[in-house]
Amino acid sequence: MTISFDILTLFPEMFAGPLTSSIIKKARERGLIEINLVNIRDFSRTRHRTVDDAPFGGGGGMVMEPGPIFEAVDFVRRRHGGAGPVILLDPQGERFTQEMARQLAREKHLVLICGHYEGVDERVREYLVTREISIGDYVLTGGELPAMVIVDAVARLVPGVLGEAEAAEDDSFARGLLEYPQYTRPRTYRGFGVPEVLLSGHHGEVERWRRQEALLRTLVRRPDLLASRELEAWERELLQAVGEQINRLLAGARKDVVQ
Ligand code: 9D3
After folding, report:
1. Are residues 122 and 219 in the same domain?
2. In a domain, 182, yes or no
3. Does 172 reside within a domain?
4. Active site residue 156
5. Is the pLDDT of residue 83 over 90?
6. Which of 10, 26, 114, 159 could form a disulfide with 143 if both were Cys (CB 3.0 to 4.6 A apart)?
7. Tell me, what's the pLDDT at 169?
């Protein structure tokens, strides 16, 4: 099943690189995803093709008019028979997550509206948009980069887009853990070696080591991920052992201070 993205923007030229390279390029060539860039300016009805105007009530800056955005959305939705989310990329939106990417990957048609620094007429949010999404708490110049982030995150979940190996691997992140460390040749580089266990040929031990490293790395770097995830028995035991070890170290340190 193929998924279609319609991206509405005033700057379609910004999308060339990311959407015509690598995995996304191949997915488009193979018809697994469809990406259509729509210039909002093409839906302006004014003599000078304007798309924004001064805010009612005064104040500085400009506001993107509702007309061109509503008409662009009508146009792309008619071609797809109506349904499907209309997403506004906006710093005030709900934070984008892997869970949301999985949800969006089940849709047939996604409309992504890129706002710009000036902001859009409130009626676009209220009567047209079904969902507002932000990609995080930092200020960008527009919704174009966030739209590319969403297309990328959603497209790679469409069956067939990733190679078999990549897909089967089932990211550690999707399982709620960070990745384990990886190494390749040479065995020694500038005097720096590789963990012995990886060279041992003991598949079972390698597997256990990787899971342990992923778990410890997550504990140190992203404890929030561990808190929101069910632990398997062996994971719980490993973390308990680490905790006990730390307690022993701290107890020893206290004794040293008292003496
Ligand atoms: C007048 C500008 N603003 C007051 C602080 C608000 C503002 C609106 C739009 C600031 C930046 C932008 C442009 N950013 C986006 O459109 C955007 C965005 C972002 O900046 N960060 C994270 N996610 C997103 S999604 C869309």
Report:
1. no
2. no
3. no
4. yes
5. no
6. 114
7. 55
